Amino acid sequence: MYVPKLAFAFMLVASSVAGQEEISAPQVQKIVQERPREAEAAARAFIMLIAPDRVEGSRSLDSLKAYSLDQYWMEVAQLTVQFNMVQNLARRDSVRAQLVAKMFGLEAYARELQRAYRFANEAQRTTFRSQLETLIGGHFDIENQLRVLEIKDIERRLAEVRAETQRRIEKRAEFVKFSVDGIIRDATRPQ
Description:
By secondary structure, the protein is mainly alpha-helical. The chain is built from eight helices and no strands. The chain has one domain.
């Protein structure tokens, strides 16, 4: 099964930036092959979540279904996998989940424009290119926001490790005495 480069590249970026496990093509392919009805419902619900101001998103799915069932299921599969990623992320970090959902909204719109671009005339293509540049610029900005959050998390964890290391250095004699006392206690305990 062919996974479009644009869609799969977006999903890999989002998964790495969001601190998620990488999305594998088999996850998408399984949905494309099995075509579960619940995936359709999840994809449509996710479109409404990530692009509530764009009613065309749901209509775009309908027109895609009429045009190509295979492309429709590829889009449904991508949206379903992304929906699951956002749900899993929201359990741990609602701020990151909101950013990733926005990023996925931009991606869905970019895929929609990519499909429209194929059949557009030159004037439309110029407009679509401009819209894509704006979308990808927004996507890039969200990626950077996610990276800043990751840097802050790393800095916080590093500060915690430094503080614990300093505490252990300051209490070295106490830790050594406690460990030695435990060893001697175990050695003298009746068996």
